[in-house]
Amino acid sequence: MITIDAAFDSGNIEVRRITGADDIVLAIRRDHLSEFYQWFHFRLSGARGQAVTIRIVDLAGSAYPGGWPGYRAVMSSDRQHWARADTSYDPAADNGTLTIKMTPDSDQVWCAYFAPYSLERHHDLVARIGGAPGVQVDVLGHSLDGRPIDRIRIGDGPLQLWLYARQHPGESMAQWWMEGALERLVDAGDPAARALRAKATLHVVPNMNPDGSVRGHLRTNAAGVNLNREWAAPTATRSPEVLCVLDAMIASGVDGAMDVHGDEAIPHVFIADFEGIPSITDKQLALLADYKARLVRISPDFQTRRGYPPSGAGKANLTMSTNALAERFGCLAMTLEMPFKDNDDLPCPVQGWSPERSKALGRDCLAAFMEMLPDLR
Ligand code: ZN
Q: Domain of 45: which CATH number?
């Protein structure tokens, strides 16, 4: 018998109908107390050797309908290696239908919007990195569901660098990026990491939104709040996740920051800038241009031609973290966006954008920071 399950860490799907391998109709659950939906993650059982057609319907109202054309779902039979499935999108069918076709070679296949990064893996990461020499881990606060907001501190230099991810929990590539960056930071044989650790103190929050991650949300916390619109005035009742991190940033000061995200629609890696903040300085703009130029040279997966249009002078949304930090601290504060689809300049037919490439980009972003440290303050 064919069954669909999603009652696990970051699972999200509703079964509308299963009448056979060629007629599996599903829908995505909304984030709790929110209108957003786009993240899905489920297990298909009992279809080994059968040609399966899965339809996810009602996607016209999803958070980013522009994310579906050109998108391919990820699937895995061992939950380690995630490959892309044959996927197509028809905006006219059943209010927007994503059709996924596969012939499983195993009894169970996992299928998701992007390679999941579970909360258990988060704890494994914190334990592993936290056990390395010279690393400290502390709890900055708790989420609404009572989960810890973990901060990993590495290095003892005077410059304060903050790296944080998964304000939007469905953007799991952001935590794969974190895994790559953290592994590099604790590599005793890596000269760039050693230089960084000597000159800077790195504050790393690998998961800003553990509740949304576990609940299988795209964009919000347990109260349906988009954390990246809370940075002007976070509160203990709506957004304790932001409140505790911002308090820690104020305590340490911030000389540089990177907020790591995924973008549903744009098939490129890019940095969203902060040039619309009221107090923007020539130095901040020069640092931003310098960082981008260095990262372009270091990583063929990064580019500067495609991205969000710049916000007009004085028009920046100060509820968003990097705008808020650039304004408050006068520093370089960047939003890094990776694709859910692929980097179309360097596509990978098998995997598309992947955990492996996210991790490589995390390592490369550190190298760009390392080169720029003398200029940051
Ligand atoms: Zn995001």
A: 2.60.40.3120
Distances (CA, A) of 85 to 103, 104, 271, 375: 10, 11, 28, 45
Angle at 234 between CA 274 and CA 116, to 5 degrees: 75
Same domain, yes or no, for 342 and 300? yes
List average pLDDT for each run of 10 residues in the chain, which is 377 residues long: 98 98 98 98 98 98 98 98 98 98 98 98 98 97 98 97 98 98 97 95 98 98 98 98 98 98 98 94 97 98 95 93 98 98 98 98 97 92
State the total domains in the chain. Answer: 2
Q: What is the residue range of 52's domain?
A: 3-112
- Last residue of a domain, which of 79, 112, 145? 112
- Name the residue with tokens 């490129």: 268
From the candidates 171, 183, 337, 371, which is the catalytic residue? Answer: 337
Give the environment of ion ligand 1: residues with CB less than 5 A.
168, 171, 261
